[in-house]
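Entry for the shared binder. Reason: the reviewer on the internal report wants the predicted structure included alongside the sequence.
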Amino acid sequence: MAVVSRQAVDAALSTVKDPCLGKDLVALEAVNKVQIDGGKVAVEIVLGYPALGSRQALGDQVLQVLLALEGVTEADVDMGWYVHPAPIANSQAAIAGVKNIVAVASGKGGVGKSTSTVNLALALVAEGAKVGILDADIYGPSQPMMLGVGQQRPETHGQNQMKPIVAHGVQSISMGYLVTEKTPMAWRGPMVSGALQQLLNQTLWQDLDYLLIDMPPGTGDIQLTLSQHVPVTGAVIVTTPQDIALLDAQKGIEMFRKVNVPVLGVIENMATHICSQCGHEEHIFGSGGGERIALDYQSELLGALPLDLSIRQNADGGSPTVVSEPDSEITAVYRNIARKLGAKLWQQQKLGNAMPEISISDD
């Protein structure tokens, strides 16, 4: 019987590619442990992002290539992941209890950014991550309604800290938890920026892999405050295929580029509409816009969502699609986006990209 060598095992594993990054497991340094005992081989694969939805398929691929090796009579595969905290290269202090901060932004309102944020957070939870949401839209917070929290108020801790509200497994904080629905936030820019920093720093986040920041639309005070005072790991841009939305999305991308925050990808909402009566598919707002803008800025289209009534109804009802319809095609898209986002962050860290050194320019 042929002797099984470590070199042969590594060669076999190098033929298996990560589905999100397209690189093999050996090159990604995802092979954490290999044990060889005669014809028995046991390997431990550790990805750098939550991948519950693709773990079985990837594990099966690894198992097949191992069993195909000459001399292997038995193989065991342990598939797991660990989300690494983002390195911080500048003087900004890390946020306690948070490994990675991702800004979800758009150039204009009405493109489904908040709906994307909550479903992306829930998709990351479904994939096995610990996730939080900071609702940074001080003037018009919407996450309390989408998470179905109702009139809950955060519990205080000590003199100036509060515990996040937990709903559907997601930790969250929002100005909407601190004021009534009818209370207008008639604040000037400095007050809003101060409130954002307080919400972020005075919340007792509990061991989060990812904190998603639901940004207000535009490129104003809150965006600059976030860029200057918060250690953002990366940003996701939400748009629709409509030309005017793409123009505004470009401004959002340019803003993050000016402060050296990596744009991890683009989510395209309302990409297509399928008639519920006849099944006819139509690109109401245009087609291919999200992919074009991603290519223009050397980024990636993370996923495209349809214009579907259920997405809006579920979010308005406090039970977003990912939790209310876990087996739907729409949920599958969100979970695929979640895996791609996590993989992009892992790749960014593996390339040695430290946290951005913030620099604001006038051009």
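Summary line for the report: The chain is about 35% helix and 20% strand.
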